[in-house]
Structure formats: C-alpha cells, structure tokens
Amino acid sequence: MNGLKAQLEELWPVVLEVGLNLLWALLALLATWVAAKLVSRAVNRLTERGIDETLVPVLETLAVWATYVVGGLVVLDIFGANTTSLVALLGAAGLAIGLALKDTLQSIAAGFVLLGLRPFRVGETIQFGSTIGTVRKIGLFTTELDTPDGLRISAPNDKVWGETLTNFTRNASRRIEIIASIAYGDDIETGMRVLRQLVAEDPRILTDPEPAYAVRALADSSVNIHLRAWTKTDEYWDVYWDLMKNLKPALEAEGLTIPFPQRELHIVRGDEKKITQPQALEQE
C-alpha cells in the first residue's frame, strides 16, 4: 500500500498537468469556435460598408479557416508540441496533397482569377458553354447559379473560367431584334410603318441608339423586315414579348399577310424518246 501510495503521489503532478492542459485546450477550442462565428458575422457585414458581395463568401471562408488554424496551433502549443517543426511538416504534406489534388487547386486558382478580374458578379445572368443562369455565389472551389427553370447548378471554377463567358446583365442596355415576315404581294413600306408604330407606342424602347428598320432578306416564301431597337437590360424580355404579341394583330390590321412556307412546282412534259437496247456483237 505504501508503494502504491508513493506511485500515486509521483503521478499526481503529471495527471494534474495533463488535466489542466486538457481544460485549457477545451477552452481554446471553445474560444476558437466563438471567434470563428464572430469573424464570419463581421465579414458578412462588410456588404453594408460597400464591399462587393461577390467577395464576401471567399473572404468569409478564408477568415474562418485562418481562425481555426490559429486555434489549432494554440492547442498544440498548450500540449508542448513544437509548432515550428509542425508547420514545416504541414508545408511538406501540403505540397504532396497539392500534387494529388491538382484539379482542385486549379478550381481554387480559377476562383481567385474570377474574383480578381470580375467578369461577373452575384446577381448577374451569365452563360458559359451550354450553361446559363443567375450567379448566386462564387466560392473557392465552385460557382453556384440558378437556371431560368429554377435549378441550382454548382460548377467548378476552372470549368467556368475555361469557357467563353457571356454576361447578359452587365451592360445597362440591350438590343432587341424582331423579324416580321410579309407576303411578296404586300407593300414593304406598310410593313415598315407597322414596326415604327409598335416602337412609337412602347415608351420602354430607347431613342438613343435610334431604332433601325431594314429588309433583311427576300426569302423563299416571304419578305423579311428587320427591326433593331434598344431597351434597358432589366426590361428586355418584357419588351420583346410585348412586341411579339402585338406584331401579328398590327400586321393584320393593315391588311398584310404572314405567309406560310410554300413552294411552286412546275412539271415540264417532253417528247418521249425511244430507247433501244444495244445489241451484242457477234463473235466471228
């Protein structure tokens, strides 16, 4: 019993030290968690100070992870770990992981390029490849978009950056193109007048640049009259749909015809010629 008591007395300082270290480590982890939450809220409030909301998700991710890394180093230091050697070890491990995750790092690099060059921002409608949607978030790895039919798409940043990007909402105005088809027997000037009247009745169509009217093509079954007009980008589809809805009754009110595709077939009958079969040569 005396020997066991002596061993317990020797181990007690070690147990006490380990217990205190665990307590301090738990407090450090709790403080790190609270600090990460506060940092996240602080970064999200940057939009109220005029910071572009496109940058906020990336800044939030970087700040939160930096907070966790600092907290982890503090916990290791509490247990007496050599943080300098650990940082060097993590650097070597990071290099190996980076080589293994080359594609992922390409997405991260593309994300920083997108954030730096700003070809689009949150809330803008873009198209890359065959994908079109409204940007909701630009992260370190992916860009999230909402498609016109209500689907959420998460595309790797390197795929977005690697395609030709079309931004539909960056410019303040956008051009509308309408083609009105009339019959060959109709008057072209009357068709032009109908288009001018439609433009004059819609105040959403801009006067600068001025609308343009022209005969686009003499097609197989119709004369195609072309209208080019400009409107505000956020009103583009409303104006386009209204013009298309009003075009048919306006043409019909002027007695113009919207022709269906048609083709004339001329049958020419010639004299029938008698075809004789060649006779085989007789062998001598």
From TrEMBL:
Name this protein carries in UniProt: Small-conductance mechanosensitive channel
Q: Which residues cross the membrane?
A: 12-34, 55-76, 82-101
Q: What does this protein do?
A: Mechanosensitive channel that participates in the regulation of osmotic pressure changes within the cell, opening in response to stretch forces in the membrane lipid bilayer, without the need for other proteins. Contributes to normal resistance to hypoosmotic shock. Forms an ion channel of 1.0 nanosiemens conductance with a slight preference for anions.
The record's section on SUPFAM superfamilies has: Mechanosensitive channel protein MscS (YggB), C-terminal domain (SSF82689), Mechanosensitive channel protein MscS (YggB), transmembrane region (SSF82861), Sm-like ribonucleoproteins (SSF50182)
Q: Where is the Mechanosensitive ion channel MscS domain?
A: 103-170
* Record-stated family: Belongs to the MscS (TC 1.A.23) family.
Q: Which Pfam families match?
A: MS_channel_1st (PF21088), MS_channel_1st_1 (PF05552), MS_channel_2nd (PF00924), MS_channel_3rd (PF21082)
List, for all copies, the residue spans of the domain called Mechanosensitive ion channel transmembrane helices 2/3: 67-102
The source organism is Microbulbifer salipaludis
What is this entry's stated membrane topology? Multi-pass membrane protein
How does this polypeptide assemble, per the annotation? Answer: Homoheptamer.
**This protein's UniProt keywords:** Cell inner membrane, Cell membrane, Ion channel, Ion transport, Membrane, Transmembrane, Transmembrane helix, Transport
Query: Lineage, please?
Result: Bacteria, Pseudomonadati, Pseudomonadota, Gammaproteobacteria, Cellvibrionales
The chain positions of domain Mechanosensitive ion channel MscS C-terminal read 177-257
UniProt-annotated location(s): Cell inner membrane; Cell membrane
Q: What is its main location?
A: membrane
